[in-house]
Amino acid sequence: MKIIIAGAYAIGTYLAQFLSRNKYDIILIDELPENLEKIGQNYDLLTLEGKSTSINVLKQAGAKHADLFIAVNPKETDNITACTMAHHLGAKKTVAKIDNPEYMEPQNQEFFKRLGIDRLIYPELLAAKDIINGLKMSWVRQRWDVHGGALVMLGIKLRETCKILDRPLKDISGPSDPYHIVAIKRHNETIIPNGEDTLQKEDLAYFMTQKEYIPYMRKITGKENYVDIKNVMIMGGGRTAVRSVKIIPEYMNVKVIETNPDRCEYLNEMFDEDQLVINGDGRDTNLLVEEGIRHTQAFVALTPNAETNILACMAAKTFGVKKTIASVENFDYIDMAAKLDIGTIINKKAIAASYIYQMLLDANVDNVRFLMAVDADVAEFIPVQGSKITRKPIKDIQLPSGMTIGGLVRNEVGMLVSGNTQIEAGDIVVVFCYNVNKKKVEQLFN
């Protein structure tokens, strides 16, 4: 598969690195040689110096034969133009990163398709949705809904209050129990568990369950003492903060702390009257106390600086804030943030890459997510008639090492699976993949 990526910036370079590991034929375009130099030396891909809005450059890159053209330059106008040109040169699919929320409205999607742009991605909106999901459940590190919530995956940090620690999984998560444990992160190790494994204190465990059993999951993991979130404080008034405030539930009160006075004026115009904007430094503990940090249930750090966000979340925890969320774009800091027990980590590069990645899979697949904490993917696969996964019960199918099935949705009803489950064509199957060749997984469903 031939992939052209235009823009060797944050998302483009991460996506190129991520895809090069999967042996795709990749060309990365950028007009600045210093952006291309390092990645071209360290990864299995080709680089091309030039503007992605140049017809000659696109022809030289081979847009005519591209299976996917991805434009992730800083300027959305460049991305829209480049995708339109690549489409008319022959690229099969195009994706453009944009910054204008108006473009994401459903009535405008068809307009861009007529221009030759198959998908638009707005990383800040994708990140905002993850943030709001995190705020809705203070006791969960990460939540992922399958098919509108027919099944739910919950990433939960286990403390000494957890009631299912130190017992073999076969004794606590059998066919009659309303949850499966699909992965465990323990220190620096990712574990795809079997029946003999146990849950231990400080594990980050990923549970697959049904929506109606979420209160039960809260009880057995010892999270009943976590208060529901009503008061939220956000540090940093950038685009991700704006998108988050725009979709925050009405029952939550929000305060945004921003250092730039001009930006504060803009935010005041964007937000409702009851959504407060404070001009100040979110690292100033006196300011935090004055603005009610002791009565705040969630603190969200969204400045462009990862260290600032991590330190601010640590400070918030000293005031008793239970739920902290930090934007960490520098991957070098993600493990550190996890070890410092920051809470939910937001990385727009990984979120955007997950969204784009599902376009590359041959099988009928949707809703792919990359789970940074365990360095793994989870996705919804839909098997076709006669595919290998539908021919036998799961226990009789040799699944690739590192792959596990968390559950499925059939006729809009979510269900957990066991070894005796027979998957049918048209089912929505939740597949968890860790360090596994994705082509082997796809072959089961095609």
From TrEMBL:
Keywords from UniProt, A to Z, are: Ion transport, NAD, Potassium, Potassium transport, Transport
- Kindly indicate whether the keyword Ion transport belongs to this entry: yes
Q: Which residues form the RCK N-terminal domain?
A: 1-121, 229-346
Span of domain RCK C-terminal: 141-223, 365-446
| Pfam families recorded | TrkA_C, TrkA_N
Source organism's superkingdom? Bacteria
According to the UniProt record, one GO cellular component term is:
plasma membrane
**Any GO molecular function:** potassium ion transmembrane transporter activity
Q: Is Transferase among the key words of this record?
A: no
InterPro entries this protein is in?
K_uptake_TrkA (IPR006036), NAD(P)-bd_dom_sf (IPR036291), RCK_C (IPR006037), RCK_C_sf (IPR036721), RCK_N (IPR003148), Trk_Ktr_HKT_K-transport (IPR050721)
Enumerate the PANTHER family for this protein: POTASSIUM CHANNEL PROTEIN 2-RELATED-RELATED, TRK SYSTEM POTASSIUM UPTAKE PROTEIN TRKA
Q: What protein name does the entry list?
A: Trk system potassium uptake protein TrkA
**Organism the protein comes from:** Prevotella disiens
